[in-house]
Design brief:
- The chain is mainly α and about 150 residues long.
- It contains 7 helices and 4 strands.
- A two-stranded antiparallel ribbon has the order 1-2.
- Helix 2 packs across helix 3 and helix 5 packs antiparallel against helix 6.
- The chain is globular.
Length: about 150
Amino acid sequence: MKTSQQGIDLIKAFEGFSGKPYLCPAEYWTIGYGNIRCRDGSRVKEETPHVTEAEAEDLLAHELVSFERTVDRLIKVPLQQGQYDALVSFAYNLGGGALSASSLRRMLNRGNYSGAERQFKRWVFAGGRKLRGLVKRRAAEAALFASAA
C-alpha cells in the first residue's frame, strides 16, 4: 500500500513548509515538510542549505517510503486506505520507534481497531509540553483512521 494524496495532504498541512532549517518544538532541526533528514540521509542542521517547495515535496516523497515500510513491517492486520494514511502520518511525525513501542500498535495488531483509534489522542506532547497543534493533528489522524472502518 502507498500513502494516498489525502494522507500526503494531511502531513503537509500539519507539518507546514519551511524552506530554511528551524528547530521544531521537540528541538530537532527540521526543513521542508517536517523532515529531520536530508536526501542523503544526514541530519538537518542549522547550516543545511535552504530548499524550494519542489525540493521539499521530493524530500517528503523520499521519506514517506521509509515510513510506509515501517507501517508495513509493524502492522499485521488488514488496513483500509485511511487507516494506513493515518498510521503513516503518525509515524512520520513521531518516528517509527514510537509506533513500534505504542499501545496503538499492540491494540491494532490484536484486531482492536476502535481501541487503536482512541490511542491517537495520547500522543500530543513534544518537549514535555502538550501542544495544541499535536492535539489537532492526532484528532485528524484518528478521524481519518475511523473513516476507513
